[in-house]
Structure formats: structure tokens, C-alpha cells
Predict the structure.
Amino acid sequence: MNSNRLLFSAAVVAASLAFAEDPAPAPAAPAGPPPPSADEIKRVMDYQDNGKDRGPALLDVVACLKVDQTKGSATIFTCIEPVTGPVKKATTVNAWIQFFCPKGGKYEDLKVQWLLGNEVRQTTDFTVEGLARTRTWRAHTPPKAGKWTIKIVQGEGKELGSTTFTVTD
């Protein structure tokens, strides 16, 4: 009789396990940071609509070895190979620059400066216009080893941003 009870109990446990629901899935990991606050979005929208006299907002300046120029690419006009360590002398380096421009803004007083140490070795003028994100790049081939700085300047010397990289022999 005890063996029948044991067999019956085992059958009940097995049956209940067979009909048990799968455990609830683990909660999904967040998809990324939360969206900006309403106040942040309103501030950016106000700048986008009314900020043309305030100038462009520099988002990034990157020392870049390769900018994607492939027509139809999802990353077109994006730096796809940033400088991550020393580069050899005579390697072309791009100053990849990304701005956020307000509606109606056209800024013709921008410059890229290439400095070796504290000495400006080359200056190139450029213009930015458009609405929202605008990207551009300017190439330079550093002829000497040392610590180079790419500086983005507006007007008569207002530095908007910079980045550095090292050139070796």
C-alpha cells in the first residue's frame, strides 16, 4: 500500500510539474538612457527656432583617419575611424566637426587651426549652415612628429572646442 501511495504521489508531482507555467520572463533591460526632460527639449527647440544670432553649437571635433563618403551608407559623412593612438608622420588626419545649427543660421567666420605644440601651422576657413545637425571635415597631413591640436575657432579667436593627437616618425 505504501508503494502505491509513493507511486501516486510521484505521479501527482510529475503531472503538476508538467503543467506548471514557464517562469515569468526577466524584465527587459532598459533600452538606453531616458529621453531628455521637457525643459531640455524646450530649450533646444527655442534655440533651433530663435537662436541664429547666437551662433552654431559645436557638438564634436574628432581627429579622424576615415570619414564615410559611401553614397547611401547609414553612416555617410560620419567619422568611422577616429584616431585612437599615435599616427605616423605624413598620415592624413581629418578634423571631423559636427555642429547643431539653428534655423536661418549661416556662419562664415569659422576656422580649423592645426597646431604643433602652441604654434599654429595651418588655418582653414569654413562655413556652416543648415538646420539641426551639420557635419564637415577638413584634412591635413602633419609633416612633423609631436603633439598636434585641432582647434575650432569662431570670429576673432573664440575657441569653440579642440582635440589632440600625437604624430610619430
Observations:
- The CA atoms of residues 36 and 42 lie 10 Å apart.
- Confidence is low (pLDDT under 50) at residues 1-21.
